[in-house]
């Protein structure tokens, strides 16, 4: 940690910062420049709240040197984390596609989607039972009934299932039915939810928040890991920018960055990331080409009748074409699908 | 609602959109332009999910005409909502200042802050018992112990108290101790939390999300109101932009905009909005000058020892000066403090 | 164009808007809803300034239906524009790589870069002679001397050359030396520059502005085309967002979007788009996979000695590897390189 | 400057960075931490391009300690810069209002606006003769004819005049007619324009770019000052964010920040900053309350007939009311108007 003192900070201020740091166990390196004094503090940053130091008299700014996350970082673990559920591996050599409808609406809609997903070669079915909606007047999901339908679809197709959890009180029931629990973008910093999810023994798919930096995203993963759950899958799903043509701006550069900073698997959701089904195929290709470990794709048997997110859903036919393309793309990346 | 059809959309697509709209109870106005056909749909938009229409063949885009919120809007209620707790009015002619430490740390720290707040003339004490922290290794709050200290400080000073709620499971206990319950920026779209808070009979202070549009913010208020709780206070606390000099960019224009679109009271938090105590005074002045109904200010007896948000906290002395300035500013706005 | 009137707009306001529109040659469709009246105006929007209508009494908002660009749009020209210079085609079946140093620094540096670029298989040499720099104290380019070195490098290698133009007064001389003229992100809306470039007969590479929407970018292309220059190559180079890990956020979704909305070729600059050489390769792959017509890559014989943008420049060795990868990627996209 | 080395950077890399820095005249302070080595470099940062260092082997990141601007900074000049033109002072105790139409359209429109501006008590008339327009089909200004009308209006009213310059080739003629030359948001980093404007002896009003950080804005001022023109007035005019309700997000916090970092005067343009005339009054009040040295306000005798920016223009009546309010606001800030 580097503490930059104000121009003309008094000797008293400088000593007082140094004393404080030494009290916290840091080793101090003092650099006196022509204009400013700079204090280098070597030690474990997690032991002090950097913002307190900023409030000390004479301090201009604090610069962190080490990353604030530990368990989620490459420094902690060099090799890639591979999450294994039955014969499905996430983060390894296999590109995994999570596909299915935005929301579970009925048995017919779900099973038709599930069969299409299965036939096209994907191994994980997605579907929302509890839905976060901007409007209180929009469809909020089938709740437990939806979970039961998902479980039944798993039984019929052999697909793994993943569904979103939004409320700490629903973790138990969702964990009962689902193979993977998904934390949505709006809940990426719902710390109480994360702390509870840290205690269960199922993988967590952690979506990046709408306006979260990569560092904040990895810190949310750190909440899960610090609490005991190392099975974290990261999912880039678009960030909020000034551009209004797309629902969000899909930040594909997050894929190679996360691969560099962290050992956790990272997938991309081009359906939410763009909000337009016509962009799903090119952005899926781009994601795999950038090194993503998988994709999350919305598929609906009849997008124009969908109770949610119709415009970004693929038909089963389009999904089949997409899977063909992804197979080729996986191959030149040295992976399989 | 306006449905813009693609250039060259077939007659079949056009009729199919019209039929769908009529089925949903809309009245249709068809405009055939040289290049595109446009369908005007008059009726209650809350009855249809606009995104489904976007997925119909031939549809290029949907344009909403009416605001998606009802109860939170000025159209629904012309006069300003004034929330009354004892002799404190929020949203009326009195500028209200919510002040106190970021987090409750100890009885001494809290009561010293509370006395300073009281002496300077503010009527509402803020203080966090449950704290949302980016890092799992940072101080997470005193939890129920903190609530008890807040209640004790209310007893000693007569100040009202407000504190943050982050978890549906803590609503009952927080509502037991606190006069106003605060929803933080990260939870603005935690819809399960909002639905539960809609059922209680205490005012809710709803902070704007880091990257929430004003419309989404009012929709979050709509969740509370649609569920039965009309006592909503909005709080602008800065949005996330590309500028890194400040912690957030305080969007003061949100104040007159909310006043125009909604009847709800709106206050401003320049402490979080800027992250720097030196900016708190000018931005407080600007907020009142823009028409804000109040302010939320972090005050700490010793900012450099604070367990959270020290750099943006005022000392009791600086807070007293700020209150003097606010009194003058309130006066020229035709209000009191 | 749709004009949405205020709730309770008077009959007088409504007629006055209609009259104004009719005067401008629009055909009017009136829809009276329960809450609001909506006026559809069919005709040529380019003939009226939409913002004036917004200032008429009773008008709440104006919604555009047609795209504001004509010549740059797919509606105007269905087939892809292919720009041909000698045997080099941009926008066709060949993926084109523009490569070279950020700035021309010396003959040795330039020719070494150019040879590396040539050997690796690229056909266009980039290099800045006039450099836009945030600081007045940074290296500003070799100016005409740099242009002469570029021309000499073309002679020796047979590569085409492209360089940036920032000032209308330098167009003539730059057009004299360079095969393609580049407009940088900071000048995308330098309308005087665009108007002058519209008059020359060389292709223009138009970078997307730091915070330009795709529509504004296409409108900048429209300036060139409306003035007579149809040889426009668009270049996505990253937009400004809240994320600070990368220099910019490379918006790869812009590639398929531009391909949909426009017939112009679009390339991607992952060097500026990320600011980090380690991200150049994965983002180049992603760009080609998303359908880009080419890439712009910074290559420097000795990045740590570069006078500008060293951290985002590839060494000749790394560039050679990248070109190998791009060849494979082009192949599965049905293109050549 | 602080150079943070990679975890496990070799001794060779460390020495090579140190040598490079010493060669450039820096004094070196080495701190060896458990995980990383940090190199403090004391000296004149303007002498080295920081980005080259980032490209050296083993370097993880560079952290600047000193601000990159010199002449524009408070460190260089402690007291406020006051710009004096005749009896008008900008940056001193007088709040200055620059007002007038977006574009000069005709003599009648201009003189009517000018008289209204004058009567309401403002001293500086604004009006565009050369207009930057997103669309090539929109009104582009009366050009020299417009300048002549402005000069004639000055003669009739005694107001100072300010108008925008967009092209280095027009500087001479605009400087001939205008008292203050304005650089628009889109040209804030048009460095060739800035370099030429640095050579003239008239004050420059420098608008903040749409997505410029405060540091980049001060660096643009530095271009003017480094070239010899110290008469720089900064103008905050809104930044681009995700919020679409307003045309831009007016960043009022930029006012106290600039006052802290720089000695230059800073004014605010709430007309462009919001795009809506209804927001101009509250945001003007907020600007003065935050410490702004003045305002730039669009006034048009008939906003709905304006050839540009009608919706954000005040009528003369509304402007008169605004000036009354500003007078009161100036008074409590200890200033006059």
TrEMBL record, chains A, B, C, D:
NCBIfam families registered for this protein in UniProt: DAHP_synth_Bsub, PRK08673.1, PRK12595.1
SUPFAM superfamilies associated with the record: Aldolase
PANTHER family: PHOSPHO-2-DEHYDRO-3-DEOXYHEPTONATE ALDOLASE
Listed GO MF terms: 3-deoxy-7-phosphoheptulonate synthase activity; aldehyde-lyase activity
Entry superkingdom: Bacteria
Gene Ontology terms describing biological process: aromatic amino acid family biosynthetic process
UniProt keywords, alphabetically: Transferase
Domain DAHP synthetase I/KDSA intervals: 83-328
UniProt-recorded name of the protein: 3-deoxy-7-phosphoheptulonate synthase
Biological classification of the source: Bacteria, Bacillati, Bacillota, Clostridia, Eubacteriales
Enzyme Commission numbers on file: 2.5.1.54
Pfam families the record matches: DAHP_snth_FXD (PF18152), DAHP_synth_1 (PF00793)
DAHP synthase ferredoxin-like domain sequence ranges: 1-66
Matching InterPro entries: Aldolase_TIM, Class-I_DAHP_synthase, DAHP1/KDSA, DAHP_snth_FXD, DAHP_syn_2
